[in-house]
Design a protein that fits this description.
127 residues; 5 helices; 4-stranded antiparallel sheet
Length: 127
């Protein structure tokens, strides 16, 4: 399975362009799905901006739910990813082995709230 995504990898960006896909996969298709996703991770550069964070997460308490997550430093990198054959293959695997429940692109600019969240997750807290 994909390497663990740490808090610092997610929160160290000044800007983040993310892709989040909620997927429903029947339990008898889990192994096949995980293998397919591993082959379709954006490990090789897509354009000039490879994903610095990507991963597949199994939702606790919902045996048939997974979350696919990618984070990009630039909007161009994310756009290239969405237009790639590799991404179309990922969507095909999702459709064949399960059901796409929700997909969204998210953006986050670094702010005081993000800095506060980072501090809290690293063991600090408000003043």
């Amino acid at each position: 399975m994909a390497e663990a995504v740490t808090t610092s990898l997610i929160l160290d960006y000044r800007s983040v362009y993310g892709l989040e896909i909620m997927i429903q996969i029947r339990p008898d298709k889990h192994e096949e799905f995980v293998q397919a996703v591993e082959e379709l991770r954006p490990g090789a550069p897509v354009g000039d901006d490879p994903a610095e964070v990507s991963g597949l997460f199994h939702r606790t308490g919902a045996e048939d739910r997974f979350l696919w997550l990618e984070r990009w430093a630039t909007l161009g990198g994310l756009s290239d990813r969405l237009a790639s054959d590799n991404f179309r293959a990922l969507l095909g695997a999702i459709r064949v082995l399960g059901e796409l429940k929700e997909a969204r692109v998210v953006t986050s600019d670094e702010s005081d709230q993000l800095a506060l969240l980072r501090d809290q997750l690293q063991g600090g807290g408000p003043g």
